[in-house]
Request: fold
Amino acid sequence: MPALPPDGEALVDEVPDLESRVAEHDHQALKLWLRLLACTMRIETQIRSRLRQDFGTTLPRFDLLAQLERHPQGLSMRELSQRLMVTGGNVTGITDQLEAEGLVQREPHPSDRRSFSVKLTPAGRRQFKRMAATHEAWIDELLAGWNAEQKTQVYALLAALKGHLNQLPPSAERTGGATNPRK
Reply:
């Protein structure tokens, strides 16, 4: 991997993205934010495309299967919605598709008769294991631009940033409850 110039600026990309909005006079934090976002979006675009091409599936479906694989006892639709940070309607639609394909099953929830618990079927578990192994190889490939030491450094730096962000009050507290102080 080529080293970055001393000022930390990378070579200019030919493909425009959110970072192309940056001007020379912009604040360093803004430049960093847009670079992080641009990298995240490029990785996500690659993953979405590869999931569609290699497995005929979507990232939301993969994410739902991943949550169920981590929780073999099953998760309620509400828990899935919270973990995936999407609406209940989105979870219902994805679950309906996966159930029709025999990858998940709904069972009565053990402690709430009004709700269902969603679990992977044996076929769903096998399919997810294949996808997860391939997904891991893709992530290794996509992050191969850094050596092991660089990955460790970036991981530590992002941990420090995450720790700082976790210390900040929620935005509603910062704005006195208003969701958009400009309105």
